[in-house]
Amino acid sequence: MAEQTNREELASRYLLGGLSENEAMTLEEQILSDDEVFENLEIAEDELIDRYVRDDLSAEERRRVREMIFNSPRLAERVEIGRILTTRVPSQPAEAVRAEKKTPWWQLFLPTPQMAPAMRLVAVAPLALLLLTSVLLVLVWTRHSADAQRWARAEQQLSQLQKEIADQNAKSSGLETALTQTQQEKAEQEKLLADLQRQLAEQRGRTPSIFSFFINPGVGTRGSGDAAASLRIPPGKDELELQLNVDGGDYRQYEATLQDADLKPILKHPRLKPIRRGSRNFIPFKVAARLLRQGSYYIHVDGLTDQQVRENFNDYPFRVTK
């Protein structure tokens, strides 16, 4: 009897985590190989649950039992059944329970040998019905809780999936818009390139039309309308070659700058060499016809010495008319 009690106490210490690592390993090996040790462990577990539902454990023991219940759904169901039975049947004083032979809680509802057979059946039937109902309630509650958790996870996953789909649709819409803009820009660039290629082909297919015009230096100061030559550019001319009379200079090179009426530079030609035409010297100043609108212009010419020093030479005013 004392040996049986020691085994039960050892099993109880094992459940409460009171054994050393070596003792726990030894007991676990015995549980797997010895049916009696396994039965002692079940008895110790039943008594521990009984004491837990009756609040007959220390704070540290209750903490250990709560950890066991949290990690074992089976123990959680047994604890729920024990609580249901405890609330329906008045509990005995803790001293009386300990004074008895550690009777498990479920034996309190079993018929005693002193009862008549008919009374035993009457006593057992409500207990069996109660146990069956309690088990069914626990199972239904457990399943309902598990289903509720699964539904919550499913709804969360569905919500996350819907959000991802919305993000993907937004990205797809943005990509389609960007693709449409890119295609439009590409079409415009291709059209512009085709126009440039056509214009280049046309330019290559014909010789530029050049219009020459001789201009003498202005008389008087700049801006004098009387001293400005009048120039009319014929239609279809692409380039003008203004022949500037530099007969009065003795420079080997000249620098000429085209300016508008506000003396704003338009085009500059450095190092223009004079060309002898008849009895006079001229320097050719070429300018695209598209640069000359209707209005007044000046070409300021500086002479370049042998040391490449600029010296003011002359101005050539002219007017472009329709």
Structure description:
The protein has 322 residues and is of the alpha+beta class. The protein folds into two domains: 2-112 and 130-149, no CATH class; 210-321, Immunoglobulin-like (Sandwich), CATH 2.60.40.2550. The chain is built from seven helices and nine strands. It has helices at residues 2-15, 21-33, 35-53, 59-71, 73-88, 94-99, 117-205, and strands at 210-215, 229-232, 239-245, 253-260, 265-272, 275-277, 280-288, 295-304, 310-321. It has a five-stranded mixed β-sheet, with no helix packed on it. It has a four-stranded mixed β-sheet with strand order 1-3-7-6, with no helix packed on it. Helix 3 packs across helix 5 (73-88) and helix 5 (73-88) crosses helix 7. The longest helix is centred in the middle third of the chain and has 89 residues, at 117-205. Residues 94-101 and 220-225 have low confidence and may be disordered.
Quick structural gist:
The protein is an alpha+beta fold. It is built from 7 helices and 9 strands.
Which labels suit this protein?
alpha+beta, Immunoglobulin-like, rod-shaped, 322 residues, 7 helices, four-stranded mixed β-sheet, 2 domains
Largest sheet: 5 strands, mixed
> H/E order of the elements?
HHHHHHHEEEEEEEEE
**Sequence stretches where pLDDT stays below 50 over 5 or more residues:** 94-101, 220-225
Number of domains: 2
Please outline the helices and strands.
Blueprint: H1 2-15, H2 21-33, H3 35-53, H4 59-71, H5 73-88, H6 94-99, H7 117-205, E1 210-215, E2 229-232, E3 239-245, E4 253-260, E5 265-272, E6 275-277, E7 280-288, E8 295-304, E9 310-321
Parallel strand pairs: 1-3, 2-9
Antiparallel strand pairs: 3-7, 4-5, 4-8, 6-7, 8-9
